[in-house]
Amino acid sequence: MKLFTRYNRINLSMMVALFLISGVTYYFLINYILIHELDEALEDYRARIESYVRGHGELPPVSVADETRVSYRPTSQAPKVLPPENVTMRDTIENELHKYRQQRYIQKARTGSYLVTLSKPIEGTKMLTRTVVIITVVMLLVVIVASLIVNQLVLRRLWQPFYNALAQVKTFKLGNNRLPAFAQTDIEEFSYMNTLLAETVGSAEAEYQLLKEFTENASHEIQTPLAIIRSKLDLVIQEEGLSDRQAEALKSVYSGIKRLTKLNQSLLLLTKIENRQFSQTSRVDLLEKVSEKLGQFQEFWQNNDISWSQELNPAWIDANPELIEILLTNLISNAGRHNRPGGSIHIRLTANELRVSNSGSDTALDTSRLFRRFYKEVQNSQHNGLGLSIVKQICDQLLIRISYQYSGGLHQFTLSWD
Amino acid sequence: MKLLVIEDEKELSDSMCTYLNSEQFTCETAYDYHSAIDKALINEYVCIILDITLPNGSGLDILSELKAAGKSDGVLIVSAKNSLDDRVRGLNTGADDYLTKPFHLAELGARVAAIVRRKSFEGKTRISVGHLTLDLSERVLKSGDEPVALTKKEYELLLYFLSNKNRVVTKEAIVEHLWGDDIDMADSYDFIYSHIKNLRKKLMQSGCPDYIKAVYGMGYKFSTDL
User: Fold this and answer.
1) What pLDDT digit, counting tens, does each position of A68-94 carry?
2) How far apart (Å, rounded) are the C-alpha atoms in residues A137 and A141?
3) Terminus-to-terminus CA distance in chain B, angstroms?
4) 3-state DSSP call for residue B221?
5) Closest-CA residue in chain A for B19?
6) Which among A231, A242, A299 has the least Cβ separation from residue B216?
7) Which CATH fold would you assign to the domain A282-416?
8) What fold characterizes domain A169-277?
9) pLDDT tens digit string along B52-80?
10) Which of A2, A38, B2, B131 is the most buried (most CB within 10 A)?
11) B116 and B133, same domain (yes or no)
């Protein structure tokens, strides 16, 4: 839910509640005041009748034109004043039911005791309460509309620095070495937020650069001793008269160095991919790349008595060319490497999918551990078990979906993209 | 012809010099930025082997200084950094080639030989192999005026051997040179045997003695002085 929506919702429900409460309060208050006024008027009327009786000894004549309806009825009760009450009576002229405020009391006159009934219509108060309700509702609508407009215009403008900062942060990408520029604002909270954001982003970028340097330094530090060992080996084999046993030992050392070198390169590659150091993208012609790779590997497959078939259609992807290169090399070389003599490889490329299937071991690979680092089907294998985790890492970064399936004796890796 | 090896790791520098020293080349060494600059600016070298990470400065700066001074020595960058960026930066600064550590000395030999051929024998694009001639501009092997049909791989193999004449070259180094680093068929390099066999056969059919000798079962040595 958007901040405005939530704010508006709270604001409006508060206003509706307040207006309803105030409307009801007004109604009762005004009603009470009007009734009170009527009661006082009736009280005055009674006082006037009493003073007339004191002066003349008899009740005053009833005036029909008067708004106040008066009636006398002989009674034997002792003088007393009854509390005022609301009654409904039929209007003799309009012949309609009307509400009246009524005051009854016993008046002693010379001719005996009378029950005096004084009634005044409450029509005016009805009119007033109706007006109060209408005003309340209209005001409520006006306030709601006004507040909506104000929120739209003013709030949006007030929050503009916040949205600007969000947009800046959104364009920021770690590793680009481009820090977002936050616009100046004179609102304290936003300016504080911008300062904090700039600091956080700046230090993240600095840390990232350090990490990159570390990766490069680690590479240098490990590669150099490896280079020394290998160069010394290259010199040793120039010597005449090495024994067969020495030569065998040297072969093993060569192979060990090669594995170590590959391992180091693979780990560095993984770190680099994770650090998103391959972020530049361009449009890559997959048909061309796959054909190129197939050409590169064909000879090896032939030598190992592996047959292959291909079904290649034009396909393009927006990605980092180096990563695509590594991805294809790993996938396609795996298909040959983990094959068996007399086996087969099938490669199918369509506009949105690349499928590499190959024969190999007779059981499916462990899908839960397949893409993990150092996963090996056979523990004593010469391979470092990083190939597929590199493939996975690249797929993740390039938003390519990868799946593995074992069917009909074929191990199938399927890449698909949009 | 003189080569200059600028490399701060003394052991590696020694290996490179020992390997490259021959009747054709003499090697000089520099271990840090300042001595490297001094030597490179005063002397003429047919090829400078340049490490990027040096004490007191960067190899790329040396390269820029050389170019600014109008020096036309060939430069082969040897670096532990294997990223496209570094490679592009090195080549754009004016290096002729870029080799990533760790490398086979035979590969270094081949790269240096290629640079030297480009830089100093601009007219001479032929290498004699016994009584045969390898024409580099036409990429053919000739016996007199008759071409000897070689496949692309056989041609490259022969050129590689010629660049590492009288040296033992491992099968691993040959595979990496001819098929690239990506090709990694575990430890089986036997498939190159057929290429070697064919090349050897073709050379011998053209009347050459057997120049290619298998050594210790791990590599081959090409030698014309039998």
Assistant:
1) 888 888 888 877 888 888 888 877 777
2) 6
3) 25
4) strand
5) A235
6) A242
7) Heat Shock Protein 90 (3.30.565)
8) Helix Hairpins (1.10.287)
9) 888 888 889 999 999 998 888 899 999 87
10) A38
11) no
